[in-house]
Each structure stands twice: as C-alpha cells, then as structure tokens.
Amino acid sequence: MRLTQTKAELRAAAAIRPRAVVMTMGALHEGHAALLAEARERVGPDGSVVLTIFVNPLQFGPSEDFDRYPRTLASDLAIAKNEGVDLVFNPSRDELYPNEPSITVHPGPLADELEGQVRPGHFTGVLTVVSKMLHLTSPDLALFGEKDYQQLTLIREMVCDLDMDVDVVPVQTVREPDGLALSSRNRYLDETERDEALVLYRALTAGAKAGMNGPDAVLAAAHAELEAVPSVQIDYLALRAPDLGPVIGPGEARMLIAARVGSTRLIDNISITLR
Fold this sequence. Notes:
Blueprint: E1 2-4, H1 7-12, E2 19-24, H2 30-43, E3 48-53, H3 73-82, E4 87-89, H4 93-96, H5 115-118, H6 122-137, E5 141-145, H7 149-161, E6 167-171, H8 191-209, H9 215-227, E7 233-240, E8 251-261, E9 264-274
Parallel strand pairs: 1-4, 2-3, 2-5, 3-4, 5-6
Antiparallel strand pairs: 7-8, 8-9
C-alpha cells in the first residue's frame, strides 16, 4: 500500500486498471471497510483500489464540527491495509485548495432540500471535492454508501449531467447489531445519547412496516416512534421517491431522517415499498 499526499505523487502512482475509488473524510469504521471490500471485489485481484482521506472544509458550515471532526490517520491506514487498498491519497488543505476556490460545482435544486435546507451550501462543497477527486484519481468505479443517500443521488446526477466517465456504485448502509447506522460522528455520543439515537432506526423500520397502508401511514408510524423520545430533536423526516422527487403512487420509496442527539447530528434512511 502506498501513501501519497500531493497531486504530483498521485499522478506518478502506477495507473493499474480497473481502478475503484472510495472517498472518505477519515475516521474509518466498518461501514468504510465494507465500501473498500466491495471495491476490492469489483476490481478483482489485478485491479487497484484507491482510498482518499480528506476532511473537506467546503462542506462544513461556520457553526459545524470541522475543527473537532476526528482525524485518525494511523488507524485509518491500518484498516485500509487490511482491506487491500493499493493507494491512499491524503492531501493537505493547501494541496487540494492552494487558493480559495472561485469556481465550484452548482448542485441544482435538490441541494436546497432536506440536508441542504438545514446545511446551506453543504452540497456545493461535497460535489466540488468529489469532482476534484474523480479528476485526480481517474477511477472506473466510485463507491458511495447509501447512508448519505441525498449525497449519493446528487453525485449520480453530477456524473450523468457532466458526462463523467465513471460508474457510481451504491453500497448498503452498515449498521450496528441494534440497528444504529455506522457513522464517524457516533463516537461523539455518550452512553445515554447512544441509546436515544436508536429511535432513528426504530422510526424508519416502523415506517417501512406500515408501507402496505400508504404514505400517510408510513409517516404516522415513524412520528409515533419519535414522539416517544422527545429529547431527540428532528431536523426533518421525509418520504420521497427513489430519486428524491415526490412520491407518486405505489412502488419503491425512500424515507430519510436527520436529528440531533445531544450535540451530535445524525442522518439515516431506509427503502420502503408502498402498496
């Protein structure tokens, strides 16, 4: 496994094909490991897996947790090596943004909804860094977790609209045995908050079970679970079509939730079949 920290080093690295990239902000956990394992399987033993580790300042708002976001490079590299990563790109802020960006990726109207309504400008920062990383790593495949479902949807749209020559591969959310979605921010939770956070998954699964009774029943079932834990502050609970447009008729849908548990903000989502 080779560690690179500059764009020049990255370009000089052997360009083994096929190449898969997994983009992260570090603080790796089993969810990231699942992405890396899937990447390894898809490119085969003769392909290459690239991991990027970069805490992207463009996607954090002024009152968000950029400064305290966990940086755990040594343990990240251990996980990467264990999962068969060939190349790690871990640039500094000055390396990736030598100047304050004057040109960024405009993510379209979906970026102003859900996460974008709570975090204005977030997806401009996300799509800008993803675009840069795709250009720098030149992958055949780029793997993203479904836990960040709106992010995944917008990346797919960007790749399609800008004719980027890469296949976007979704990977299912990895959960703890009790259902809590794995997140680097889970380490902020104390024991009590960790228990309270389980209500997000309970709400989503209650909604999924009510799918046979239609959209109103789905939302009512989810809200009933959330009301039982009033200390958890809900930013949004939404039921959308798989492309995050409005739900139209029966079929597949996606329920998304964001909430604050103590001082920690968590997101999750689940696929739902509406009858």
